[in-house]
Amino acid sequence: MNELIPLIVIIPLICALLLNLLHGKNRISRIMALIVAIIIPIIALVASNGLHFFGGHAPLTFNPSLLESLPASLLSSRVILFHPAITYSLAGLEKIFIFILGIVIFLALFTYFNKYKKVSGPYLFLIFMGTAAVSAMLLSDDIFNMYIFFEIAALTQTGIILASNTEGSTETALKYMILGSIGGPILLLGIGFVLGVIGSVNITDIVYAIHTGYVNPYSPALIIGFAMIFFGWLYASGLPPFNTIKSLIYSKGTPESSAILTTFSVLTMVAFGLVMFRIFGYLSVYKITIMLFSLLAMVLGVSMAVVQTDYRKMLGFLAVGELGFIAIGFGIGTKLSMTAGLFQAFNDIVITSLLFIGFGIVYYLTGTSDTRKLGGLISLNPKVSIMILLGGLALAGVPPFNGFQSKLMLVQSALNAGFPEIAIIIVLVSIVVFMTFVKAFHSIYLKPKPKDLGFVHKEVPSLAIVSIAILLIICLVIGLDPNLITYSFGQYLGGLI
Amino acid sequence: MIMDVQLASLFTSGALIVIGLYAAIFLDNIIKKIIGLSFIEEGVNLFLVALGYKLGGIVPIFLPGMTKSSFYANSAYPLPQALVLTSIVIGASTLAVMLALVMVLYKKHHTLSTKAMLGEDHE
Amino acid sequence: MAFYDLLLDSLKEVKGKIKKDPLTSDNVSGATAGELTVISVTLLAALLLTRVNLLISMVIVLILAVALVTNLPLIPKVIKEENNSLDTMLFYVILTLGIVVCLIYWGVGYV
Asked: What is the separation, in whole angstroms, between the first and last Cα of chain A?
């Protein structure tokens, strides 16, 4: 048992509660928040891989002394392999995702502290609670535990939108909760169907029961359970029909809130997507439905983004469209395509956070998000403009950045699997993403400055520039050596496929 | 098909979910929508509890004086009750947050109609 | 030439329907790019059906092509459906729930 694994969830939880109590004491809150935000990625890297059984209840095969005292009929049955306790598992994949989650939270908090003199305890509570919830979703091997933390993450996302206090944020929060109260219970209903057929909520046991023929893999209850869980996954990730509300959330939040929210959404999508693949990957209808919804996500996201004149809405739609790329990796279903999908998820977190914080600087300077009223900002601070341009190129898939490597892997996997149409669609949508970004960049930075453009602040906040620079360095490093990341993903998937 | 307690509970939970979906989609008053969403959550909780039913079963508490084999043969399945406890709490907290948001929005818009409050964005 | 006139008319419709205030060229260029994306992605995705049955997929692709071209200013319709109102979102959510359950439950037998 590895004792550091539950600490990845417990430390942000305790910090969240303490920060809520320390609301009003600025200095202590800031120091504590930054310390915990840097501890999370360090623990994730330092902890050794393994399983952790809550309560110490390991399966009987790990406990030979207890095994001796049982009757012989039990010893020869499958019961000795079952997991009686909630199990958390840490492998290379979880380490990488929790590491990048910690880095994004740290940089977002950096930006938030730089902008405001007084920090809000409840807002920090929500951020750290969400971090704990998403880490638990990635680590947990128990599907009901994942659902509980998913509901916690949904509540904290609502709270983060409310805390942004922009125009219409309360209505957006209520809409998100209403749609969530349909999506969440349907997911729980699906989990209930799976529990009813198999009798356990531990994912390893469920996979074992289905693949060894303990239950009928094509039983109608299991298929309906898959349909419900799939619908819940659509809500959790923000694929159509939930793409409108997710892009609305991203456009209504403050820049660092949007960066945090998009990280949470992508990680939730990865966690539940991997669970669905492990349990239901044998169904051929699984691949078809995921492919259908991912194509829909790509086309809706990009075609809505390209007509926007408000750059926050454009970025919201682009962020939702990028989820389609991740889902197509899951949909094609081969080892290379799933590695590409997970790699695309990692890149998506880094790049969208970079762009949200970068465009947030523009909003901080000018107070408006309408591209028709902006122009000529490149003269104000050329370094920031170039960094944002490089971030946009990474989004579109230009070498030598990481977006290029993951999209190339996606196209290669689609061609290898015998889906040339999907490869063409991926390239086409990437071109339109590139066009959208260049259009927005030109409107904000390159075109001549209109005479009536007034500035709210004159100075670019320096810590935001540091955040963008760090994320851009990560993009460049991963782009030059993608094997740092894809090796762990390949190892994890090698055990599954 | 003998209508025992488990089957009746499963049908009731299905009815609750359908009624809740109807209320959440078709009714215009925001409070009625939220009541409908609460119906959906409670219907799912009832479904989970009904999964643990055992005909003629006993409460899964191992009292002194019971033999292990009679306990294994007769007890109901204890896992769903534990799951449902957490789920009920989540339902209660989401309901509380939604109602608080409705209170704030009512002060702003002075109407409880969803079309007026949550319709097209007024930008 | 009649097709070219149809294209020009639809572009003018796009220009009129997107915004009421004076347009800059980036709105119309974006809308045209969006049109092309939607049409090409839909037709390419329909080509995926060739694995099921060649004849049916060809029929579906032709029907889709005709339907898309005759309703040509597609982007204003997409924008109208992707509005921020809760009723539209709830409609699509429930429609998708129905489609997903039916597709998966009856699709398992066929595929």
From this structure: 26
Interface partners of B (3+ CB pairs, < 8 Å)? A, C
Sign of CA dihedral A473, A323, A308, B121: negative
Q: Which chain B positions have a beta carbon within 8 Å of A152's beta carbon?
A: 90
Any domain includes A351: yes
Residue A361 lies in a domain: yes
Contact between chains at A170 and B105 (C-beta distance less than 8 A): yes
ipTM of the complex: 0.95
Kindly report the nearest CA distance between residue C5 and chain A, in angstroms.
23
Domain that holds residue A374: 283-497
The type of residue at B111 is T
How near does any CA of chain C get to the CA of B116, in Å? Answer: 10
Q: Do A303 and C78 touch (CB under 8 A)?
A: yes
pLDDT in tens, chain A (497 residues): 478 899 999 999 999 999 999 888 889 999 999 999 999 999 999 988 888 888 888 888 877 777 777 777 777 777 778 888 899 999 899 999 999 999 999 999 988 988 888 888 899 999 999 999 999 999 999 999 999 999 999 999 999 999 988 888 999 999 999 999 999 999 999 999 999 999 889 999 999 999 888 889 999 999 999 999 999 999 999 998 999 999 999 998 888 999 999 999 999 999 999 999 999 988 889 999 999 999 999 999 999 999 888 889 999 999 999 999 999 999 998 999 999 999 999 999 999 999 999 998 888 888 888 888 888 888 888 888 999 999 999 999 888 899 999 999 999 999 999 999 999 999 999 999 999 999 999 988 888 888 878 788 888 888 888 889 999 999 999 999 988 888 889 888 887 76
Structural domain includes residue A22: no
Exposed e or buried b per residue across B51-82, where buried means at least 16 C-beta atoms within 10 angstroms of its C-beta: bbbeeeeeeeeeeeeeeeeeeeeebeeebbee
What chain B holds in terms of domains, given with CATH numbers, is 5-61+71-117 (1.10.287.3510)
Size of interface A-B (CB pairs under 8 A): 79
Count of domains observed in chain A: 1
Cβ A468 vs Cβ A354: under 8 Å: yes
A400 touches chain B (CB under 8 A): no
Residue A393 lies in a domain: yes
Is the minimum CB–CB distance between B118 and chain C shorter than 8 Å? yes
